[in-house]
Amino acid sequence: MTATWGEHLLVTHLGRKLLRLLLVVLAVTAVTFLMVHLLPGDVAYTIGGETATADDIRAIREALGLDRSMLAQYRSWLGRLVHGDLGRSYLTGEPVLQAILSRLPVTLELLVISQLLALALALPAALICAYRSGSHVDRLISTGGFATLSIPSFVMALLTIYLFSVKLRWLPATGYTPLQAGVWANLKSFVLPALSIALIEWVVLMRVLRSDLITTLQQHYILMAKAKGLPPWRILLLHALRPSAFTMLTVMGLQVGRLLGEAVIVETLFALPGMGRLLVTAIYARDHLMVQGCVLVISIGYVTVNSAVDMLYTLLDPRIRREAAVGT
Amino acid sequence: MQTIRAARIRRSCPAIAGRHLVALLIGMLLIGCGPTPPTETTTPTGGTLYFGLEAPFHGFDVLGTSGYLNPPMAPLNNLILEPLFRMDRAGNLIPVLGLTATASAGGDEWEIALRQGVRFHDQTPFNADAVVHHWHRILDPANRYRGRPIFDPIQRVEKITDHQVRFTLAHPWPAFLRTISDELLLGNFIPSPTAVEAGTHDRKPVGTGPFKYHRWNNSDHFVVLKNPHYWQPGKPLLNKVVFRALPDHQTRYASLLAGQLDLITLDRGNLIEQAAGKPALTIHPNPGNGAEIILINTAEPPLDDVRVRKALALANHQQRHIRMVYGGAIPFVHHPFGEGFDCQPDGYLAYDPERARALIAAYGKPVEIECLHSNTSRGRRIGALLQQLYQEIGVTLTPVALSTAPQVMRVMQRQYQLATWRIPPALDHGPMLYRSYHSQSPTNFTGYHNPELDRLLAQQRVETDPAARDRLLCDIVRFLNREVPFLYRGGRRSHIVARRKIRNMMESPGFTVDLASAWLDEVTKFNQSAYEIETAAAVPEFNCPDTGDREATRARLVGAWKGEDSWGGKLEVRFNLDDTMAGSRSGGYDLTATYTICGATIRFQTKLGTLVTLTMSGQTMAGTFERNGYGGTLTLRQVSNTTEAAAADS
User: Fold this and answer.
1) Residue A71 burial (CB count, 10 A)
2) What is the pTM of this model?
3) Cβ contact, residue pair B255, A51, below 8 Å
């Protein structure tokens, strides 16, 4: 009976979350629509170019429906959205949904690999630093971390290209190889872009985790574990890491937005055909429908990841599970 | 009846095969042209070429474009689609899909004979119907083709026979052949009428060119494959060309160095200079024409006063623009017609801040103006430079950084005072001048109106005598230089940086390259870190020019090398040496070249054509240097056996 009541509460909880997610997405698209329309110039000038006359511009605007009111344009966009149609790019005529779907895997792969790389660097570093807090090793890793954090991603990208592509010739400098061409070839095309992001992101994760680990390692149950003679790696990995990971998870969720910002730069530098590059090109060209489509997908991704992080808390911490079950 | 029988003009590298070793060595290092024909071990067919472009690709349907092709996209377009004619730098007509062009006695009709037996990639036959179909789309007012004003005098295009068409003009139009041969006008390229009618041509272009569309992926890469049925026998030699869009200059260049790309377009002076120091790379500068300018809105005060405009021109330091904004990558210009066009005296207002200050004082009111420029780092440099230059003459300039769309919008709505702009490259600038500065033109964004200028602009449109028309164009230039509706920031010059293994890459007169005849020399490798030529067996060896023996490491060299350096300048080196040899080179615009030839080290240096320093251990050479653009003619002769330098000013 309790389990059924708990399940009912969970469904209500998820339903509420989904509704909130939809409202957030709707609000984001409305604000984006407003902002893009408030920008000076529109896509008609980009299409018309320097040789167009005022009549040409008027004709282009009419043909694209840009002469209608902003509200009418938004209503029409929402109407099409309900049917799964995001429209066509003003600039290239490519269906927006198709353009996004073909680029989304590239950006997702970039973000996942960069986060995995960042975690691969942050986890051991944080464990070592926390365990040897205040030692030379701790100071050395922290200083190194701050040094990489202070390098902007575009500089990091150019440095990695120069070292690994031009000098050592280990990895391709630019370009994207799809997964169909082979896993290794695909991964090779992501190593440098992901590394450029990860070398900046890992420091934040490492510092947050280190700090929480230090607090956890001062708990009584850790003292008990030490008294029982458990080896340090077992204490750190099995007893200290899980309760210390909450802040890091929250940060990872919140970092998604920032990572997309990094992806814009990195995709442009490494010529990866991802969403970031698509969005930037669309903004500069005032390709409203493409911008709307990209923002919609990004906002859905952002709120989904953060909701997933919320749910991950319940998996990691039994206390939160219990609180959710009693509906508090 | 005037018939112009087009002649195929072949441009090739200077004939250096069979010349001396140094000729070969320096020639390969400097001018980027390999020996032709290929060596025995070379396979001239097959292979894939990777071409890095700076801009993403858009559609190929002419109605979707503004008329002008984005120069970086032109090489791709040229491989798939073909025009009726091309034109070489000397103005000779090159037949492509058209064979001859015959003008009527009045000059207002042209009959063009078409090539027979040609098919589009989709097997649609190329004939008069295809040409007429294409031109009807362009000329039909209902289609609102935005490039229509360029072809304004063309009234209609009709079929005479299956392989003959007639162009009827509103009036005799001397620029007709030049305009329809311009490779930067997409309207000149004939697409398959079948693909156009099916609505597929925009994303899957179908033409008659040496390569055919294969794949276009996510604005990331565009792949074209060899057209096995190409009408020119023996072409193309490559199997595949992959175009990739890499907007960032640094990474595009890094991809070239890393071997991921074979050739790239580049317009950054510092990178071009770096590339010049790499023996594995060759640089192909294309002088082109047109200009980088600053448009002036002459309709509003204070810029409606010619004294203020002149003051701005006199305080505008074009050389500083070229150096600080473009890293020396573009030429200094007095007019947009290109380097070979002489209008002296052209009335260009050279930098003279004293005169500028006097004109501002004569105006008598404070001058505060705003300049729109792009929100790129290059645009911001332009804004900062102008602000500094005009501050010196007491003019307050506020730079305003904008992205393309709002800048174009404000210029078109005449809501600007100064704005960075460009005069696009063209085989004939008459139509552009008319559209930009005639008082009745809807694209006269400067608001400058003058009946005298209108008369000159109208007259050049119909003047059929080439010499008289050139005089008219010069008169227009003098008028514009006097009345200053725009300021010059420099000329235009595109650069293609290629790996040396690409042979026979013919440059077209426009802003593009012709890869139909290109082939890959995979045998000769260039080790860029060692700065030495390396054979496939990795043993340094050179052709002995006198004996022709490839194993020879000693040779007596007597003679001269004369050719074009990779910057387009003429270079001549004379020598008389006897020993083993090796060579290296570094530099760029400020050329520094060092060669160890026959045990003696020769080092010479030019600095933008103003200084030559020549150092040669064991020998002393005297040098004279005659400036020619950024390059020049360097003539050396041996004067003594001392060990130090001789220098000569140009």
Assistant:
1) 9
2) 0.73
3) no
